[in-house]
């Protein structure tokens, strides 16, 4: 047990030495640049020394000042790293909140009119938080295959809406899109006319029941689920 503690201490000491050296060289380099530009080191500038001890301080004082700086950075490195990570995370969250979302709709061709895909896309694109909705029948280009479109559009999207029906259950493209969205860890929202048409492994995702007779109610429910998913 004591031997293991000694080994751990030795490893810790080596790591500390490496960190100190790693901090020293860039700090010394910056101090050298400062000396080249101003003709004095940080230490002499800080204490404004002159006279007999000036040449001594010029070298040793600068070195001491550098070591003190390294010690302070090293001593508070954990707090510094935690602070930087917290601020970076908050900044990323703020950026994400400000970004507009992109949405991909996966569906079988036979369900285009039944599930009113163009109307869903138009409604979503009129929401302030949503920039773009991708669906094949509107966006496809002759130079692009269905697989290429699927891969590029899903990768760009934040949300993937899956139209779950009897048609989509047997649709190879839809099943590939579902699998790809799962692999890429996209937020999935099933839209279904019958819960039995939803593939088992995506039932864990909160979905929305489609209703053509209460279409506006369905749209409001859909945008609510999208907001909750982000």
Structure write-up:
- With 230 residues, this protein is of the alpha/beta class.
- The protein has two domains: 2-94, no CATH class; 100-229, Rossmann fold (3-Layer(aba) Sandwich), CATH 3.40.50.10140.
- 62% of the residues lie in helices and 11% in strands.
- It contains ten helices and five strands, in the order ααααβαβααβααββα.
- The protein has helices spanning 2-38, 42-47, 54-75, 77-98, 117-125, 136-139, 146-156, 166-169, 172-183, 215-229, and strands at residues 101-106, 130-134, 159-164, 187-192, 208-209.
- The chain has a five-stranded parallel beta sheet with strand order 2-1-3-4-5, with helices on both faces.
- α5 (117-125) links the parallel β1 and β2.
Layout: helices, strands, pairs:
Elements: H1 2-38, H2 42-47, H3 54-75, H4 77-98, E1 101-106, H5 117-125, E2 130-134, H6 136-139, H7 146-156, E3 159-164, H8 166-169, H9 172-183, E4 187-192, E5 208-209, H10 215-229
Parallel strand pairs: 1-2, 1-3, 3-4, 4-5
């Amino acid at each position: 047990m004591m031997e293991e503690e000694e080994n751990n201490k030795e490893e810790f000491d080596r790591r500390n030495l490496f960190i100190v050296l790693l901090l020293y060289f860039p700090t010394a380099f910056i101090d050298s640049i400062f000396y080249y530009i101003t003709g004095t080191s940080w230490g002499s500038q800080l204490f404004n020394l002159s006279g007999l001890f000036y040449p001594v301080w010029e070298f040793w004082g600068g070195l001491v000042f550098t070591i003190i700086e390294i010690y302070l950075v090293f001593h508070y490195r954990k707090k510094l790293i935690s602070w930087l990570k917290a601020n970076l995370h908050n900044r990323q969250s703020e950026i994400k909140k400000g970004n507009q979302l992109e949405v991909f709709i996966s569906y079988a061709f036979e369900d285009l009119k039944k599930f009113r895909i163009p109307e869903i896309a138009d409604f979503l694109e009129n929401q302030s938080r949503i920039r773009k909705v991708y669906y094949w029948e509107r966006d496809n280009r002759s130079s692009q295959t269905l697989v290429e479109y699927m891969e590029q559009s899903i990768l760009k999207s934040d949300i993937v809406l899956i139209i779950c029906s009897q048609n989509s259950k047997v649709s190879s493209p839809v099943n590939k899109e579902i699998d790809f969205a799962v692999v890429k860890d996209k937020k999935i929202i099933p839209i279904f006319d019958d819960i039995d048409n939803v593939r088992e492994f995506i039932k864990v995702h909160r979905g929305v029941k489609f209703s053509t007779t209460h279409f506006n109610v369905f749209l409001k429910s859909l945008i609510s689920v999208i907001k909750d998913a982000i």
